[in-house]
Amino acid sequence: MTMEFNAVQDAVKSLEKANANLGPELLSADDARELLAVYARAVKLASYGQTALARKIDNAVEVARTLRCLHGQGQGDRGRGQALGDAPEVSDVFKGGDISLDQATEIARAEQAQPGSATELLEVAERESFQVLRERPARSCWRPNSSGA
Asked: Which of 91, 92, 115, 144 has the fewest CB atoms within 10 Å, i.e. the most exposed one?
């Protein structure tokens, strides 16, 4: 197996151990916020890998089966991967765990609709909620997809 595969397996084992020992009721609110931010970053990083790999697999049924989701969701993951493949600036930020899958998808689709828009939207994503990011393209009249899928 490759080094990447082993690193991901190690990360999963670490998360399994952390979850087994997680006692939120024993944490202060500040500690819970800090740990929640770490978990959120882990989700973002895992989402990047999942999306990138789903793009490589040319079978939505297989993707859906692996992700344990509906066929349409598997197709959606492949579509997100394609949009991100067409927006390398967005993909790089997503790869680093700095934005969520939803943010990356929204920005990549906006970039497809209006090339050059990603830079501004990545700045918005850095400091605002997803809802603000989602409304930003709508105000600019180049919102690519209102379904969020």
From this structure: 115
Please tell me the pTM assigned to this model: 0.71
Tens digit of pLDDT per residue, the chain (149 long)? 587 889 999 999 999 999 999 999 999 999 999 999 999 999 999 989 888 888 888 777 887 788 776 555 555 556 677 778 888 999 999 999 999 888 998 899 889 888 999 999 999 998 888 888 777 654 454 444 444 44
Q: Quote the tokens at residue 119.
A: 């830079």
Instruction: Provide CB contacts within 8 A for 67, sequence distance 6+.
Output: 50, 54, 73, 74, 77
Residue bearing tokens 């700045």: 123
Contact at 8 Å (CB) between 107 and 118?
A: yes
Contact of 72 with 47, CB cutoff 8 Å: no
Half-sphere exposure of residue 10: CA atoms within 13 angstroms, side-chain side: 7
Which residue ranges make up each domain of the chain? 29-139
User: HEC string of 85-125?
Assistant: HCCHHHHHHHHCCCCCHHHHHHHHHHHHHCCCCHHHHHHHH
